Amino acid sequence: MLSGERKEGGSPRFGKLHLPVGLWINSPRKQLAKLGRRWPSAASVKSSSSDTGSRSSEPLPPPPPHVELRRVGAVKAAGGASGSRAKRISQLFRGSGTGATGSGGAGGSGPTLWRPQKNRSRAASGGAALASPGPGSGSGPSTGSGGKERSENLSLRRSVSELSLQGRRRRQQERRQQALSMAPGAADAPIGPADPGDFDQLTQCLIQAPSNRPYFLLLQGYQDAQDFVVYVMTREQHVFGRGGNASTRGGSPAPYVDTFLNSPDILPRHCTVRAGPESPAMERSEALAAYLDGREPVLRFRPREEEALLGEIVRAAAAGTGDLPPLGPATLLALCVQHSARELELGHLPRLLGRLARLIKEAVWEKIKEIGDRQPENHPEGVPEVPLTPEAVSVELRPLMLWMANTTELLSFVQEKVLEMEKEADQEDPQLCNDLELCDEAMALLDEVIMCTFQQSVYYLTKTLYSTLPALLDSNPFTAGAELPGPGAELEAMPPGLKPTLGVFQAALELTSQCELHPDLVSQTFGYLFFFSNASLLNSLMERGQGRPFYQWSRAVQIRTNLDLVLDWLQGAGLGDIATEFFRKLSMAVNLLCVPRTSLLKASWSSLRTDHPTLTPAQLHHLLSHYQLGPGHGPPPAWDPLPTERDAVDTGDIFESFSSHPPLILPLGSSRLRLTGPVTDDALHRELRRLRRLLWDLEQQELPANHRHGPPVATSP
């Protein structure tokens, strides 16, 4: 009977049972027999060419594999009174052969529901000779001329069969013991004769879901004896419904159903699941080409390709040979982090972050070493040190500034993803605690990279400034025929003595702008430069007043003018507020020296302390005690410190400490990386396409040579 035929009652009937590829049943017996009765109306899975109520109107294709999996539950005998009871999958496996009769007929005394279709030899109980299962075969002595020959043949057959059966029984017993050892308490239980119920139970427990076919998984059944755990779908269109009588009240045939469910709230034809049409090869090729050449900010990779991908991104960024936008490396690395957080397992993100942070740190350390080799701190004896020009320092610091900008944005993005992971995961999960620790270690490495690049950047900038700052104290802005520039003047219009210092500030400003450094870090970078300039100029001012007459009104006016020109230029560059704050102490010291002599002689110590609060008592006393009042004139008694401040004057330091610089505070808030919408930058799009093709090549290298093929033809960007 064809597997597509259908009998009354709506239950499908099969000629043979076939297990689909990917479905493995670890049963003690692997022999399958043909089904002699229909399958149950509950949870059978089969293949058909139609889902309509009548299937006789259209031709049927060859029957595909069918399987019926039963949930672990009560086991009922196959030979029960109810004719609708189904054969369970455990009943498809024959017994161990211990129940066969000796000299009787082929059928024996057992039930005939699973009679083999071909005659076979059976072993007689008690070591009797094997007999042919056909009529007339028996166990008595043979007669006739061929009796001896038959006796020898039977002896040979008996010996071979007995050896085969003994080995088979031994293997069955070993498999049974191995299977029973997985059950709770089975290790201490005595091993007795094989029980078909045990095999039935073990068969159902050892079933695995198919890996190459879709299936429904039953979460909570209605009847344990008839419900199944897994319902495999083998057709492109699969119908679920409730089984019933052969016809409805109106006499029309019952609707066709692939899989029967027993719950009363299931409709006769409850739902239909259809598989989407498989895309043809041309469409798949077009879809692949659309991904490889697309402008969507997506970068898909497998875990085994992660190391090569991250290494290529960091290597290209460190080389700086391409024309990527300033934050291009951070954008590409953020795409990797985003793919890991969305598509890969939860524990993959911490490992990716750790590897990413280590790669960035190694690249930055290598770049710092290269700059240090070109700009050594200690020059050979007899070789004069050549100061860095603003142009040279800009070229040297550009790689470090780029890494500082990219790492800052990447750190902000990583912090957002880690917070999302912490909110979505179970707080009591011990694995989550371990993952968060790994993420913290990775973010600490990124913090270290930012701190180090910031430190190296301001070090070389201040090293360049150190050789240009003395001109602010020595140069005269009132040269013959020179006109002082107004606010917002260009650098070329500034006095010659101020151009080197302002040139360093301009180079630093252009560098931070070109690298798209975070605004908070830009402010802190210039804050440190202004702090260094203020401390260096103030210490030089204090030092010059000790040995020679320097604190004069005319000299103070020149210094004040130079300082005002610098502050006006910085105000035009958008740095006026920061400069005013950090140059406050130098400005106050110069303002004291700019006070007219007659007015200064009338002032007292208390009034001067009130008018110049940023100066320490030791610094104020040093400026007043070395002020040039004229030949034969010393400081007036009114300038003497108060008795309460005498100790501060005697023990205080007149020089500024460079160690009291403001601390670096990393920016807070969301990342500035743009990971939504199409990629508008052509250079970033080209790099994204290159990385996608790199991943494609890595995937193709894993395939056999005859299965490899190149990527689709790329379209022009």
TrEMBL record:
Biased composition (Basic and acidic residues): 1-10
Database matches in InterPro entries: CBD_Rasip1/Radil, Dilute_dom, SMAD_FHA_dom_sf, Vascular_dev_regulator
Region (Disordered): 1-20, 35-197
Gene Ontology annotations for the cellular component aspect, listed alphabetically: cell-cell junction
MF annotations from Gene Ontology: GTPase binding
Chain ranges of the Dilute domain: 354-651
Protein name (database record): Ras-interacting protein 1
